[in-house]
Amino acid sequence: MIARRLGLLDVLAIGVNAIVGSGVFSMPDDMQRKMGGFSPLAYLLCALVLIPVALCFAELSTRDDKNGGPYLYARRAFGAQVGFVVGWACYLNAFISFAANATQFVDFAGLGSSWLFRPVVVASVLGLGAIIYIGVRPGAFVVRLMTVGKLVAIFAFVGVAVMAFDPSRLGGALPHGTAGVANGVYLALFPLQGFEVVCVPAGETTKPKRNVPIATVGSLLFAALLYVVVQAVLVGSYPNLGAESGTPLVDAAKYLAPALGVIVLVGSIVSVGGFTAGSALGTPRYGQAMADAGELPQAMARTHPRFETPHVAIAVTTVLTACLGAIFTYKELVSFSNVCVVFQYAITCAAVPVLRKKDLGLRRMEEPAHGGFRVPFGPVLPIVGALGSVLLLYGCELQELYLAAGGIALGVVVRAITRRLEVGTKPAVP
Description:
- The chain has helices spanning about 10-20, 25, 30-35, 40-65, 70-80, 80-110, 115-135, 135-160, 175-190, 210-235, 250-255, 260-280, 285-290, 310-325, 330-335, 335-360, 380-390, 400-420.
- By secondary structure, it is mainly alpha-helical.
- The chain has one domain: Amino acid/polyamine transporter I.
């Protein structure tokens, strides 16, 4: 049995860190180029699409408080094959994002052009893996500490920038018309994704039927509001927003006050480091859940006898992430992240009405499953969430679709090999 050590603040911090990572520091200039003075609306529009998705995750998390999140939901609703594909997409997206942000963390630290860059990336990933390996509580403490640090830096920037805020810079013409709006909303998906991570360590959360839904929806709403405020303040206070700098928030802070620039730079390092710590905590649980079902090697389901953590899954995930961080760049690693996450969002939303129908043999449909949270308005919001997720792909490039398809195909091959090799040891669930 894995110990339940994560409280509400822990899982809320995991959600906030999973969302508020590198995007708030590196993407405002991209949003400005796509939507100009209307760029704050990109986050708002994307959040409106994702709220039904978060509500679906909240309901489903009350049905099953085991580790696994979207993988378990899809499996219960649509069977083992679909469940595995969703679980693999989640796992793939999680450790690629883990590697990407570890890479950017070292880049923010000033080692991007140094020969030490790749070794430090690998060392950072391995160090976080070691912290998580010896117990969830040390990892959760690191996540909460970094959450506070980065939010202090962001709020300090907002507090200074509002004094130079010019509201006339908001609005105006759309640089690329409706196509720019579609692209902007699609871009906003990357910095807003991550709330689903809260559901994955449900098996280690105290009072999961209460804490997981609150943290899932609460982390998304908090992050969306934060992004809208930061983007609006940037548009109104920094005339050079939209330049190809890659560090727009740091540049704006230096423009307003040199000391503020130092604070925001430190905050950016803490932010991306916090995201990386949260990824180290949540990512291995995908592999553990699929191993429990016999679809990945059974060793990944083992729990450490002393630390009570999924130590093999943590070790495998850490090594894979370190290898990716040693080989690929940040942009290469995140190029198809949105496609993977849209796929899991759409399937998760579709699972809600299916699982409700399966409950009919046990209790009335009007009652929440297992006494937990229920998405209101019947099947309407789950359908809206599924369709909205797919529509976000309107701004997707074909290359991203091809890469995502290749990654998922690799997972299918791994599953087939695992099931063949482990026949006779522990039967795989069909």
